[in-house]
Design a protein that fits this description.
50% helix, two-stranded antiparallel sheet, Arc Repressor Mutant, subunit A, mainly alpha, 147 residues
Amino acid sequence: MRLLRSTDLALRVLMRLAVTDESNPTTRDVSTATDAPYTHAAKVVAELQHMGLLTTRRGRGGGLALTEAGRNASVGGLVRAFEGDGDVVDCEGTATSAPCPLSSACRLRGALRRAQEAFYAALDPVTVADLVADPAGPVLLGIPPRP
């Protein structure tokens, strides 16, 4: 399973905020640190703020700050929120593709759904804080360790 770019970026933004010593880095700082386009980072930051995982403050002295909910957020929950609850394969078809002719007797969709749920279940107990627990977090993110 491949994650959407926005899911990957959301996890990286939260991880970066969890280990940074900067006081209130800006969206531009985070987009540079995560090597993501600013506009894409701004959309992800807005969604994370809407979810209550980080706070934003505009103007001089403003920036981003991770909330306690963001630090303790389940990685599985975050991935579900950004990926949506769609199927791994599209059996129903879209405006540009026909429905699968095998869908009436196929068991693949159910097997893939179970695999997807197992994937999420494996990520559910992992939190953002777990991903950056010392010493791995700063080293992985290229941030000098705290004294």
